[in-house]
Amino acid sequence: MDGGTGSADFSRLHRPELPGNVTDDYCYVDIALHSPGIWETNGNRSFLHFVLPRLQLQLAIIFILTQSLHLLLRRFHLPRLVSEILAGIILGPTILGQLPQVQAALFPREGDVYLDLLSKIGYIFFIFLCGVKMDPRTVLRTGIKAWTIGVLAVTIPYGPFLFGLLVPDGPPLGSTLVDRLETLVSGLLAPLLVTYCGMNVNLVELYDLRFIGTVWMVIGMCLLVKLVAIFVPAIICRVPLKDAAALAFTMSAQGVVQMSFYYYNAVNQTFDGETFSMLTISVLIQAAAANVIVKALYDYSRMYTGYQKRDIQHTAFHSELRVLSCGHRVDDVLAVRKILEASFPSRESPLAVYALHLVELAGRAHPQLIDHQLGQKSSGGTRTQKMIEVLYSFEQQFAGVVTVQQFTAMSLTKFMHHDICTVAFNKLASLIILPFHRKWNHQGKMILDSGSLRAINSDVLDMAPCSVSILIDRHKVRRNPSSTYNVGVTFFGGMDDREALAYARRMAQSPDVHLTVVRFVPWDIYAGDSQWDAVLDAEILKETRMQGTHQDNIVYKEERVKDGAETALLIHAMEEAFDLIMVGRRHKDDTPQLLGLSEWNDLPELGPVGDMLAAPDLSTPISVLVVQHQNVKGI
């Protein structure tokens, strides 16, 4: 599209002017490449006159600015692409160009050729990695709906992508390429192309406003056609209305590939500067708007909403208890097995265990959910096989009263919470048991603190269709073995504490489990919980005391405290007495027994009591089960 007066000169990118001398006999190019250093002098030239240090400074400025903008804008759920384009506009003639001396020093015209070359290399690697991470076999397994919508909405790309598809998936080649190149390409090289395109946007020198209006009219018509081309086939394929709209906006959003297309045409002068500037701004607007609209149409937090009570409190003693256990390591499975053994499966109250072994996807970006009961095998290696064998032996140990169904979920860590919630939703689980993100060795020293596993747990707590628990396991730090499994419950009141107590009462049916319930009572007995919560608390505590009159392995006692400091002293005193302490996650902010503990809560996903018992410097051989009751949504 050509018209008006160009606001950006792209012709200089074809034939960069390099300093040099030409004679009749020979020619040479004198490029100042390396600097002697900041503190060294080379005539009157600063270190910015040299190509390599100036390029390094330019990359550092671009990286810091894009990351800073992303940290700011992601609070508004805007994608990284918006931050990259805005960073380019800030560093281009629109803003930094108003300070010509600063721009000439940091981004001189003769240095554009190097940024241009790096951005093209970054785009090639980006497309190549997209092909490496994609499994072409999934295309053959898709249904008629995906074929219909995809064929009508997508064109066949843009050599490196096809070459990436030819790379074998998984280890060793595919996964190694992704591991080695993902951070460099996605974090620096690919964003460099988008930022560099933004640096060529000039919103100051706009001459032909009528022509600009025509450009925006064409952009709007193209967007409308693409939205309709996706939305209508989706509706014909009986996709729900909101999902069809979300799909249309998702597939219409533009990104790195479209920016490279616009940039290519601008360099070849198919587009003039004004057209390129408007197209770049349209990508920014579409990316931001699509993200906001899709989030409004497609609420992930309600994907697994259950309108039935899926918890332990409303699961009768003499009925099947369904538990979903999740594990990343063999240690996780060994720890959860101890909890399941203590759950006392019997013919009157059988136990159904759905074990989900979580394996991070390597190489291909296609997730898999493998059902081992169907004879499917995973590529998780010996680690996954050992996890399967641990629970298989548990099923054999309690044959007839325990059924175990095992799955392996291979996906990216940022999507693992969807796998967990999907299995829990489909299997009607009452409780999910998640492993804590910290691990300890035999000496009580912390050996693992995984931020990605912590993020998975937090997402599951927000989205789960049933009750959720996080198991903090220190089983390696063992005291002298005992035939009795000592379980303690801290009770302050509220739905989470009631759920923890309900699970502990089920465990107490086993003669090998000794249960102690400690109720922390405020000095002012009328403070704290609401009237309805107080009624429910009193009811379950009454049932516990009644159960204790018929069983000698249940002890109930009350401790009167005035604030969180006294509570902390009593809880620390419990650490030596029990193998497992069960606590509720959430409590009301005005709970007097916990006053002052919330300010020291480093791990909100555990609550104030769970956080105190999960301290990394705690070497006491105690395991903790932090319980959250099912999120109530329309129940």
UniProtKB/TrEMBL annotation:
Instruction: Give the chief site where it resides.
Output: membrane
Q: Where in the cell is it found?
A: Membrane
**Species, as recorded:** Sesamum alatum
Q: How does it sit in the membrane?
A: Multi-pass membrane protein
Could you identify this protein by its name? Cation/H(+) antiporter 4
This entry's Gene Ontology molecular function terms read: antiporter activity
Q: Which residues form the Cation/H(+) antiporter C-terminal domain?
A: 486-630
Keywords of this protein's UniProt record, alphabetized? Ion transport, Membrane, Potassium, Potassium transport, Transmembrane, Transmembrane helix, Transport
What are the Cation/H(+) antiporter central domain coordinates in residue numbering? Answer: 351-475
Tell me where the signal peptide lies.
none
Q: Which PANTHER family match?
A: CATION/H + ANTIPORTER (PTHR32468), CATION_H(+) ANTIPORTER 3-LIKE (PTHR32468:SF22)
Q: Which GO terms describe its cellular component?
A: endomembrane system; membrane
